[in-house]
Amino acid sequence: MLKRKVTEQLKNWISTKDKKCLIVKGARQTGKTYIIEQFARDNYEETVEINFKETPSAAEIFSGDLTVDNMVMALRFRFPEKKIVPDKTLIFLDEIQECPEAITSLKFWATDNRYDVIASGSLLGIDYKRSSSYPVGYVDYITMHGLDFEEYLWGLGISDDMIRSLQSFFSEKKAVPEGIHNQMMSYYRQYIATGGMPEAVQKYIDTKDYREVDKVQRSLLQGYLYDIAHYATAEEKVKAEKCYLSLSKQLLDKENHKFQYKEIEHGARAQKYYSSIDWLLRADIIQLCRLVSDMRYDLDDYARDDFFRAYTTDLSLLIAMKDFSLKQHIVENTLSGNTKGGLFECAIADALIKKDYSLFFYKNETTKKEIDFLIQKDGKVIPIEVKSGNTRATSLNSVIKNKSDIDFGYKFIDGNIGVGDAGIITLPLYMALFI
Known about the structure:
The protein is an alpha/beta fold. The chain is built from 17 helices and 13 strands. The chain has 2 domains: 6-143, Rossmann fold (3-Layer(aba) Sandwich); 149-434, no CATH class. The protein has helices at 6-14, 32-43, 68-78, 100-112, 126-129, 149-156, 160-172, 178-194, 198-207, 210-231, 237-245, 247-252, 270-282, 315-320, 325-331, 337-353, 394-402, and strands at residues 21-25, 46-51, 89-94, 116-121, 139-143, 286-292, 303-312, 359-364, 369-377, 380-386, 409-413, 418-419, 424-428. Helix 9 runs antiparallel to helix 10, helix 10 (210-231) packs antiparallel against helix 11 (237-245) and helix 11 crosses helix 13. The two termini are 26 Å apart.
């Protein structure tokens, strides 16, 4: 079983007094159902689970009066083997986006507070299938992503002690011993090639066969394309799929990684495709990194919605858009050119997104300054550059020297740790897990 960080968040929720209903959201196939089922086995005497995709008839339970007593009675009739005892039973409503009445019921479960309720789902198309939203004030949220690099290391058998010892080099800004560094870079290349989708990671752990991993990744990608076809409106289906499948070209085949509509089809314009980008974003199929006009807190105030980069939910899906030979080049460390730079940028974006950072970038055509990523922490802006080698970070150096409110920045490289005079902290790519 793959160890996941979200388990600790679930434990924090269960220990909360007067807890609300919990919604575990996120993209499809990130392991939501598996983790919740495991958590239920470890923490409750009994679980009542309804998957509204598998058993759409279960929506009848929520078709009448939504009092808790009525819903529990309906559950007992449908599941006569279940006792459904207060404080000892978890009610798990999976793929809840398929049943709007079940979403409405969360308010009443939370108000009653006798039963713990967790709802989950990919949220695909949810805003397009119902008129009401989740009951504000009655639900808490956890977002679940694919495995990050630390979780991947756990899956390989790397202990917490080993990871903490590695973190000490990050904290002290000391170079990692070469043998350890080389092994970590090898693990990191494996992770990039495999991605963080649980099924792909488990397949690699079980087989160490990238051909088998490739089959899983392509199956996952087809599942995402199926969901676009199933949930998107008729006018969005084809456009959303074209936008999504263009991401490998947008991110790996060209130097400028700004999302360009012309890469979808010749002569394409935002007017035709922006609604499809919005749909993919709402469906948790892509994540955006927006351009800012200034590098001051709060970056949201300076962000543009019409100028952005778009990233796949997980590296597994981006890698599956390319030929198998890309995996070979990644693992054998023979990447070069735009592909190498683009892939490393995607890997850092993936790491930051999985830490729930909102992503921004800066580019000024006049001054030629460009910062790959900007994140915010504790009211401060932190600039980040990603280099495929250990070349100079000219823009980052200029920003730190000339922006009094920016104290330092990170430069991620295919190399070891170093600290520059200008406040540039140089880190190996794998240390994004400590940011």
